[in-house]
Amino acid sequence: MNKRIFKAANIQDAIASIKQELGPDAMILSTRKIPRKPQDPYAGEMIEVEAGLKNPSPWETEHEPEIREPARDLLSSVREDIVQIKDMISIAGFGSGIKNIFSENFENMGVLASFLRAGVSEKLACSLIERAGRSIDPGVNNKTGSLADPEKKIRQMKRKVMEICLDRISVTEGFKENQEPRHPHAAAFVGPTGVGKTTTIAKLAAFLSFKKKKRVGLISIDNFRIGAFEQLKAYGSIMGLPCIQAYNARDLSNAMNRMKSMDTVLIDTAGHSHHDREKLDEIVGLIRADFSISVHLTLSVTSELINMKEAASAFSALDPDTYVFTKIDETRRCGKILDQLNDYHLPVSLLTDGQKVPEDLIVPDRQTLLKIILGKGPGYGIQH
What we know:
Blueprint lengths: L1 E7 L2 H12 L4 E8 L11 E8 L16 H23 L3 H9 L3 H11 L3 H14 L14 H18 L17 E6 L6 H15 L4 E5 L7 H12 L3 E3 L3 H10 L5 E5 L8 H11 L5 E8 L4 H11 L6 E5 L9 H8 L4 E5 L8 E2 L3 H8 L11
Helix pairs in contact: 2-4, 4-5, 5-6, 7-8
């Protein structure tokens, strides 16, 4: 191995020097911060990077695949992450949190790249990595000198970050039978317009009816969208489920009484802008009248994170019980779910990943949800 030491003001300059002098196949072996000299306390911080080129084996030819060791494969993966993250970091403007992560722990860059590519916000990604770094075995995380075993550090960092993420994720089976005798479990789906509430209700109704053998009824209180009731009624007719429209609290009370023999009643509400306080108050008046109805905040992961947060804040007036995240098949950046769970602590009850009824419905466990958040878990249909 041909090794060299490079010193620079930051990791980006060091990488540029390494590529210029050793070429794109150079491997990063270790990094460390160079402490300020006592006689020059105002000097800028420096970083020292050890890099090298592997000497080719005699049996390696241009016609044969290169035989790589596990450690080199891992470091090569980190280098690939660096290339993919550079543009994203330049757009983010190299925030101070990212600079600290790079200069102190080069191995964190691969983890950070994974978060950013998945759509997790820069702020949350840096916070999770910094927290994980503080809890790693001091014998592995030596910030004052070079890392003796970077491969072990990377493995431990990834494991610790995943543990922290799992701690922030909660799931629930939100559609069990009501514990009160002779009363169905009533569940209302609320959220902005266009997030897929009606289709989600149809998927869940089919799942509960055909898979769980439950008696399911449907109620629509969506009196704003043209054809909303007809769409839900069409789903109900196909599945042989009763469907009733309610215009006001009295209608809803009568509909609930007519469905008291059901195990579960699913309620479709009007979708509207979370800025429309008047319509939101109408829904609050209906759902929170005299009924015991669980509320499930339905959000599309194709929405901007700021819109998801604003919607959650507005619909908090309904005191929702769970999240339902839809359209995860329409984006590869589901990491914003982690931001949403971090800011507004609710368990997740359902995910949807397509238009097929009832196949494209996921009842996730925590591990499945985390894989989806990080872009490593495609939809598998209904999960138990």
